[in-house]
Model the fold of this input.
Amino acid sequence: MDQEHPDNQESSRRRPLAWATVLTTVGVAVSALGMAGGLAARSSGPKQYGPGTPVNQVRFTVTVLGARIGLLQSDFSGAAKRSLIVKMRVVNDGKNSASVSVALATGLAGEPTPGNYKQVGAMTGLAADGSKTSSVEPGLPIEAEASWELAPGVSPAKVTIALRQWEYRPGFTDEQYSWWMSKLSTVIAEVTVPVARS
Done:
């Protein structure tokens, strides 16, 4: 009967030891990664908030305060329309003034059903002294109201407002930096508030 060569015996003993070392190293690395949060399930989609939570959109910080149903007078017609009105506090975190009805309104939308975004119907602003304002000045908070006309008989118990993230970057063909926002911009937060009964 042939006897195994001593070198082969030594090699056979080393293989299990080498595999044990590799498996132990991999196990320690995976454990460390898991403790550091690398294996944690990442939440997908926008963060969910309730009323009174400031949301940083980069250009603005918006705090949705509440919602109600009321009659709104249009600037262009004499008839007041039954509307869903959402009140918020807004701070301009940029360095230039921004329009309430264009810039601010572009960054948010109503969300009647998940993922279905409805553009703001009208947007108004009130300065700290209670006077109407059409702009948000840097560092000067205002109160703003976003509204959507309601169909007859529709009285939602709650409303969700979607807030999109602004970007400050150069254009595709222009190297000058400016603020960018569109309907395709990332929705970073959804704020759900009850609608006060009138």
